[in-house]
Design brief:
Blueprint: E1 5-8, H1 20-30, E2 36-45, E3 49-52, H2 82-94, E4 99-102, H3 109-118, E5 126-131, H4 137-145, E6 155-161, H5 179-193, H6 197-201, H7 203-206, H8 210-213, H9 222-229, E7 237-240, E8 243-244, E9 248-249, E10 252-254
Parallel strand pairs: 1-6, 2-5, 2-6, 3-4
Antiparallel strand pairs: 1-10, 7-10, 8-9
Length: 255
């Protein structure tokens, strides 16, 4: 059994840097032997949930600019699994969640950067899935619920985003995490560990500094999908916590 996780993928520079978070991801990945990985990425937004369905090696998408040339030379040659993608699609359809399939899109940096740091060499097929940031948290959670039980098949579910992701609020001179970002993550951690879904679904009005932490929810909602996919009988664990430039959160959670 491999528990679903949420990871903060931060800057694309994570692919090159040696930080507390990249060391955590390497250590965590070294202990896992997944048969497949299902990853929801904040950098693929669609109105209808879209599942990558291919048996080919994915292209590596460089969906960023202004970074060192070295970053654009990295390839992450993970393969897909069309049969597994179709099986996952049937799980969603059984819960009346519409889906569509994509046969050509590569892995964006919300996928390949954390995967590279967890598994420097691809170890298994990857199924990449889009997100719709305009669905409410309860619906994001329900999307995750459709995948419950995949962990029993040693399929690793990853929600890739960030709990605090406000690029306008980055503090480039910070030597310590910004207090407002820490307070938001503290609230999240406490309510996830208490499994207080009502509060979590209403984070926008109940969590401190919610508008600062989540100016737009595309990086935040993979957390709810990963949470929903976990066994509610298992305790929620905060498996990593660090920050860059004041408020960019690398909170990681196991469900």
């Amino acid at each position: 059994m491999i528990s679903p996780i949420f990871v903060g993928h931060g800057s694309p520079m994570m692919a090159l840097q040696d930080t507390a978070c990249t060391q955590f991801l390497l250590d965590y990945g070294s202990k896992l032997s997944p048969k497949a990985i299902v990853l929801f990425t904040a950098h693929w937004e669609t109105e209808v949930l879209t599942i990558s369905s291919t048996n080919e090696v994915y292209d590596t998408i460089y969906d960023f600019r202004g970074f060192p040339d070295e970053l654009f030379q990295i390839k992450y040659p993970a393969k897909g699994d069309a049969s597994l993608a179709q099986s996952i699609g049937k799980r969603f359809e059984a819960k009346n969640i519409p889906v569509q399939f994509d046969h050509t899109r590569g892995l964006d940096h919300g996928s390949w950067v954390p995967l590279l740091r967890m598994f420097p060499t691809p170890v298994c097929p990857v199924i990449q899935i889009s997100v719709n940031p305009y669905l409410p948290p309860a619906e994001q959670y329900r999307i995750g619920e459709a995948l419950r039980g995949l962990d029993q098949e040693d399929i690793l579910i990853i929600g890739s985003g960030a709990t605090v992701h406000n690029l306008r609020a980055l503090n480039w001179n910070a030597t310590e995490p910004d207090a407002w970002a820490v307070a938001f993550d503290d609230w999240l951690a406490a309510n996830m560990q208490a499994q207080n879904l009502e509060a979590l679904f209403n984070y926008a009005t109940e969590a401190p500094n919610a508008k600062m932490a989540v100016p737009r929810p595309e990086h935040f909602i993979p957390l709810y999908i990963a949470m929903g996919s976990g066994d509610p009988q298992r305790p929620v664990e905060i498996i990593h916590r660090s920050y860059e430039v004041g408020s960019l959160s690398y909170l990681a959670v196991s469900f």
